[in-house]
Write a structure and sequence with these properties.
Layout: E1 11-15, E2 18-21, H1 22-39, H2 42-72, H3 79-94
Antiparallel strand pairs: 1-2
Length: 95
């Protein structure tokens, strides 16, 4: 049971109309949570996972705010940057 990630859903934040759920946050941090649970004793792992999730939520909120600002000002992302980020994301998810 100590090595199990629980996917309770619930709203953690609402930013500019975007709802961020606990499920989404757990999905984003799943790999890191598993690694923490395998590395640390349960009481230490619990604290580290809380810190990880708090940091990930803050980053998620910041990303929503930045994206909304980006869209409001009608900026465009260079295609090369999109390709680079997609490759990076795929590498993280598969590797």
């Amino acid at each position: 049971m100590a090595n199990e990630i629980i996917y309770n859903d619930g709203i953690l934040a609402k930013v500019n109309g975007k709802i961020i759920t606990n499920f989404e946050l757990n999905q984003m941090t799943q790999r890191a949570q598993v690694q923490i649970m395998q590395t640390y004793a349960p009481e230490i792992a619990k604290k580290r996972i809380e810190d990880l999730k708090r940091s990930a939520l803050d980053q998620f909120i910041n990303n929503v705010i930045i994206l909304d600002e980006f869209k409001t000002k009608k900026f465009e992302v260079p295609k090369a940057l999109i390709d680079k980020e997609m490759t990076k994301e795929l590498d993280q998810r598969t590797g």
